[in-house]
Write a structure and sequence with these properties.
Elements lengths: L1 E6 L3 H12 L4 E7 L2 H11 L3 E4 L8 H9 L9 E5 L4 H10 L3 E4 L4 H12 L4 E2 L1 H14 L7 H7 L2 H11 L4 H8 L3 H15 L4 H10 L10
Parallel strand pairs: 1-2, 1-3, 3-4, 4-5, 5-6
């Protein structure tokens, strides 16, 4: 069972998300919060498998809460999925820098939201597909998130890890990577566990950001 914390300052939205999650046989809401301070305290006390946070909340906003739950200096991070009505670049950039593993708009399909919860809880990053192209391009051009240089990254990654990173950047799941490389799923997970620390990142999503930022893969073409 995947234990979920939901934080949103709008009671109707919070109730709707809770009902949606609890309908799934493998998901369970273990806590609800209407502000950032409460969300942080509940997350630290309950240690859920994933925290679903709104960005605009009283007390502490979602980005501030995320930074304390999954930021670079957190020893035992809790994966965070941001669910918001705002797709402003600065919000997305701030969430990525805070260490979140996923970013979705609240108008996403219910199945998309529950799938994202499972992916993030399993250590797989996700970002709303309507934002991906713009966000990757703008983020890598405007931000300097990762301290590892391209040459150092190429030097420390094995050839298999480089293959996996390229497939991650194509949006593949662990299962899809395993099928593409004709290896066991456990093998992919082992490579990821070794690769992420080498890049100075904690999530698949930030590994993809690193790959684009450091020109390990080409930037998406503008449309």
């Amino acid at each position: 069972m995947i234990r979920v914390l939901i934080a949103d300052d709008q009671p109707l939205v919070r109730a709707g998300l809770t009902a949606l999650v609890n309908l799934e046989p493998d998901l369970e809401v273990v806590g609800e919060a209407g502000d950032g301070v409460t969300a942080l305290a509940m997350a630290q006390d309950l240690r859920p498998d994933i925290a679903c946070l709104d960005i605009r909340m009283p007390g502490l906003d979602g980005i501030a809460v995320a930074r304390r739950l999954c930021g670079p200096d957190v020893e035992a991070p809790i994966p965070v999925l941001v669910l918001t009505t705002f797709d402003l670049d600065d919000y997305v950039f701030g969430a990525l820098e805070a260490g979140v593993s996923g970013f979705l708009l609240k108008d996403a399909e219910p199945e998309t939201i529950t799938t994202a919860i499972r992916q993030v809880a399993a250590g797989n990053g996700t970002i709303d597909q309507t934002l991906t192209r713009r966000i990757l391009r703008e983020f890598v051009q405007r931000r300097s998130l990762q301290p590892v240089s391209t040459s150092r990254g190429n030097g420390v990654l094995t050839s298999r890890e480089q293959e996996i990173l390229l497939l991650l950047a194509q949006g593949m799941s662990n299962d899809e990577i395993a099928r593409t490389l004709v290896v066991e799923l456990s093998t992919v997970k082992s490579h990821l566990a070794r690769m992420l620390p080498k890049l100075g990142v904690r999530s698949r999503l930030q590994a993809v950001v690193w790959a684009y930022q450091n020109r390990f893969v080409d930037l998406p073409e503008s449309r």
